[in-house]
Amino acid sequence: MTSFVYALMCLAITANEAKLESLTEDQAFAILIDNKARWDASTRTLTITGAGDFTRDHLRMLRSVPIVRTLHIRYTLCDDDLVCLRELGQLHKLMLTGRQFTDMAIVHVAAMPSLTELELEGCRLTAKGVGSLAEIEHLKSLSIDVKSLSRPAILKLKSLPSLRVLTIRHTSSVAGLSGCTQLRVLRLDAVDRTSLTIDELVDQLGDLKQLERLSLSVIEKEVLPLSAGNWFAPEFGAGRFVATARYPLYDQLTTALPDTEVSIEFERKTMTFRRRGGHGTLTFR
Predict the structure, then answer these.
(1) Residue 277 has pLDDT above 70, yes or no
(2) Residues 88 and 157 reside in one and the same domain
(3) Domain check: are 145 and 264 in the same one?
(4) Which of 28, 35, 236, 284 is the most exposed place for a label (fewest CB within 10 A)?
(5) In the listed set 84, 111, 138, which residue is the last one of a domain according to the structure?
(6) pLDDT at site 220
(7) What is the average per-residue pLDDT within 115-128?
(8) Is pLDDT of 52 > 80?
(9) Is residue 9 one of the residues assigned to a domain?
(10) Measured CA angle at 95 (ends 92, 146), to 5 deg
(11) What is the band of 233 on the pLDDT scale with cuts at 50, 70, 90?
(12) Whether the predicted pLDDT of 275 surpasses 80
């Protein structure tokens, strides 16, 4: 590349920066909406998706739109485009959705000056990326979608002093969570019990005495056997038997965490069991 061509490129970049800086709030907002961005005034959330032709410059426009407090980027842009997030001091919440985001995205996210809430869904994060989240010291709420979350990665979350709410989806490991004593609300969604025993769950979660709320969504690995001793309140309706069951995991967690509001839901809503020689359906409510 000749020096003349390089100089022209620099001039073009400078001119574009000047153009973006000169945009008023109304002008920048209009450009974003025209490009199929969605605006929710009640939550001050701007959502940009693959339906529009978004570029890094559109993110820079947000410098002129201080009303935006939450940004949701769905299936568009890439890691490198997030470099300008550090310039958006008005953003308090960021949501990233899509496999185009990797560990490198977290490097840029960690540089956001005012970020307190972060949601990551469907991103290709490794333990290294999760560990990088520990750099966001002012983070209060974190939601991540990681199928293989290692103990070292979870232990790094322990170093987030302001983290109060943690949501982990699609995990088959909870090792290390017992060390996150700063948490007040813990949500584990789609916990895969094919590789976790009840004892392992209770060992890790039972030490979190400071929790105010613990919510689990469990994928059971087998049909639960029912006996006369662990079902009650039968209701007949719509041609099937409905019952409420006492579940060992719930019993043990509520015993270990007497001051915590514990709730458990089941991904497999119905489970077949035998009752008095016949068949029925157990529905967890």
Answers:
(1) no
(2) no
(3) yes
(4) 236
(5) 111
(6) 63
(7) 90
(8) no
(9) no
(10) 125
(11) very low
(12) no
pLDDT, greater one: 58 or 240: 58
What domain range includes position 170?
125-229+250-278
Q: Per the structure block, which two tokens stand in for 109?
A: 């996210």
The verdict on residue 241 lying in a domain is no
Q: Which amino acid is at 165?
A: V
Between CA 63 and CA 58 the distance in angstroms is: 10
- 130 lies in the same domain as 266: yes
The contacts found for 84-89 with CB under 8 angstroms, 24 or more apart, are 84/56, 84/59, 84/60, 85/59, 85/109, 85/111, 85/112, 86/111, 86/112, 86/113, 87/60, 87/63, 88/59, 88/62, 88/63, 88/112, 89/113, 89/114
Which amino acid type is present at position 109? V
Residues in CB range of 224: below 8 A, 6 or more apart: 245, 247, 271, 273, 282
For residue 5, being part of any structural domain is answered with no
* CATH code of the domain covering residue 265: 3.80.10.10
266 DSSP β-pair partners:
218
Number of separate domains in the chain: 2
Check residue 45 and give its pLDDT. Answer: 95
